[in-house]
Amino acid sequence: MNRLNSSRRDFLKGALAAGGIVATSRLPLHARGNFEQLSLAYAHINAGAEKPFSVLHISDTHLTFANPDEPESVQHYRRLRTELFGERQYEALKDSIRWAKINADYLIHTGDLMDFVSDGNLIAVQEAFGPGAGNIFGSIGNHEYWAPVEPRLSNAECFSRCSKAYPYNLHFGSQVINGVNFVSIDDALDDVSQDQVEAFAREVKKGLPIILLMHVPFPTPRIVEATRKYWKWNSKFRNETPKPIAFGKRGQEFIKYLKSEPLLKGILAGHQHITVEERFSPTAVQYLVAGNFAFAGREVLFT
């Protein structure tokens, strides 16, 4: 694991304590850094780590590659969605990987790495996350379940193809970093399974502080409000009751349980393409990060 440079760690602590914002837009051209196009937020989670470390959290890259021999339905979505996401998604991903290798200890991606399942996208994932990419962990998104081919691949077939390309377990995974247990869970279809709930309970028995990684965020008032404003469902709704993300019965029970679990120290999620945070429980804040396709990310310092 890369060691976090002590001067950078001290700088992050100082900036976070002072509520500082790191920006380079006013610097003269010759003084700008190599990552000028990245737009990064910062956070600090006091999780009880054995020693300080940091991760770069990104989500929603929405890669849109397709091989020339893939069906016209895939080519159509390649053209349409590439234009929609700005045509620079792979560049944003590679910049993020490079930033994490230089400045952080881990890269965490919380889903929608690809916009649809295609041969071209699967190859791009393997190339980006291959040897030399550094320490990578994460979760699956809802777009990893989408395949624009005729006949369309089933959810299970999409999951199987992605599982072979991604360097981490897409259904449920655990990675301990300096005494902090990062647990990833597939909630991309707005619910969790019984075996995932049972697997999480086994992680709790380890007695380590837990950071939960998932794609779809749990509904909390501020996050729901920010989501509705961003997607223009209704920007002036302060007298209305925000509509929550619809988790199933098991998901609702899981949320209730998590709110009372003292080992849960934070939640990293994406899906909504916005950077926002809100307290989820007495011991945990939920952090959403904006779309990586727009060069967004958040560096999180753990102590």
The CATH superfamily name is: GpdQ, beta-strand dimerisation domain
Sheet with most strands: strand arrangement? 5-6-7-8-10-9
CATH class: Alpha Beta
- Per DSSP, the total helix count is 8
Question: Separation of termini?
Answer: 16 Å
User: Helical residue percent?
Assistant: 25-40%
Helices and strands: which structural class? alpha/beta
User: Roughly what is the average pLDDT, rounded to an integer?
Assistant: 88
Descriptive overview:
This protein is an alpha/beta fold and 303 residues long. The chain has one domain: Transcription Regulator spoIIAA. The chain contains 8 helices and 11 strands. The protein has helices at 6-17, 72-84, 89-103, 119-128, 155-165, 194-204, 221-230, 249-259; strands spanning 39-45, 53-58, 106-110, 136-139, 172-177, 180-185, 210-213, 264-269, 276-281, 284-288, 296-302. The strands form 2 sheets. The protein has a 6-stranded mixed beta sheet, covered by helices on one side. Strands 1-11-2-3-4 form a 5-stranded mixed beta sheet, covered by helices on one side. Strand 3, helix 4 (119-128) and strand 4 (136-139) form a beta-alpha-beta unit. The longest helix is centred in the first third of the chain and has 15 residues, at 89-103. The protein is globular. It starts with 5 loop residues before the first helix and ends with a strand. Residues 1-5, 11-27 and 237-242 have low confidence and may be disordered.
